[in-house]
Design goal:
mainly alpha; about 140 residues
Length: about 140
């Protein structure tokens, strides 16, 4: 029972950290400073969650969800936050990482759409926008 409580607490902490990163990214985006913040966000993911952004974006598409859910114990809420981070970074990137970032966020968003009982119009808009960019 204590072990279950420990894991629930860790998942909650993970969600809070991811939420803070999303919030920070949105603030940087609103100020037009997102490119300056990408390194900071990448470091925060690495330092706070031991999550290497490059490792995620270069994982085989089939392995992304398995890695995040099984090895990193992401629940759907945390997957949504990570997808938002990847989406914001990809949407505002001009680097070679743009497409891999958007593709990974798309994989997560599509998974969440299939496995969620709640309709999220904002997620649908992101999926449509990503598909336009990725399928060029």
């Amino acid at each position: 029972m204590k072990q279950d409580d420990y894991f629930l607490k860790q998942i909650d902490i993970l969600g809070r950290i991811l939420g803070k990163i999303v919030s920070d990214l949105l603030k940087l985006k609103s100020k037009g400073e997102i490119m300056e913040g990408i390194e900071t966000i990448t470091l925060a993911l690495k330092n706070e969650l031991d999550l290497n952004l490059n490792e995620i974006i270069y994982l085989n598409s089939k392995d992304v969800l398995k890695f995040l859910q099984e090895e990193r114990k992401f629940n759907n809420d945390n997957l949504e936050k990570l997808a938002d981070i990847l989406y914001i970074l990809g949407d505002n990137s001009n680097s070679e990482n743009k497409i891999p970032l958007l593709e990974k966020s798309l994989i997560i968003y599509e998974y969440l759409n299939k496995n969620s009982t709640t309709y999220f119009p904002e997620r649908i808009k992101k999926i449509e926008k990503i598909n336009k960019v990725v399928n060029l």
